[in-house]
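Notebook entry, structure prediction.
Reason for the run: the old model in the group folder had no record of what sequence produced it. Starting over properly, with the input documented here first.
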Amino acid sequence: MLGESRYNSLVIRGLIVIKKGIFLSLLCFLSLGFIFFNSSQTGSSSNERSHKLVDNVVTVINESKVNNILGKNLFSDELVDNLSDKLANKLNNKLTKDELNLIIRKCAHGFEFFLLSIVLALTFCSFHVKKNNVIIYSLFIVLLSAVLDEFFQLYIPGRNSSVIDVVIDFCGGIIGMLLFHAFKRKY
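New structure, fully documented this time:
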């Protein structure tokens, strides 16, 4: 009887590991799908979405809504006003909306692959892949996906391919791996 109970416990644990691995694998494919969906947007559509975000950022800064974001309890009104004035001055004097749009677009590129690398690492860990191989496999898939993403963009109207974007994407993946392993060691 005791042997049968232990066997059932092992089977249940095995099923949980398999379900977790399948869930994380699906999450990987969803992440890749999200990346390629964003790349499939025409240049004008993609630019329109990012310009709306830039306009929202500029509006928030210009209307001094930084108070609501940062919270008056954490910072003095004088500090928040000073911060919002500095941000508004940077936008108005140093940084054009097009430059801010470019920065947001490049950050989004890196962030997509940052998330992908973390999901990939979690997936490989769920299948008990060795730590060094998790890094290698995850970064290889991130780099391959970044190259394929840029190649795919060659055929989308209004889009172009850029080696710089591949580097940004891969850097996002490296940062994701560094953070993943920093937090993985703690737990």
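Summary: The chain has a mean pLDDT of 81.
The old model has been moved to the deprecated folder.
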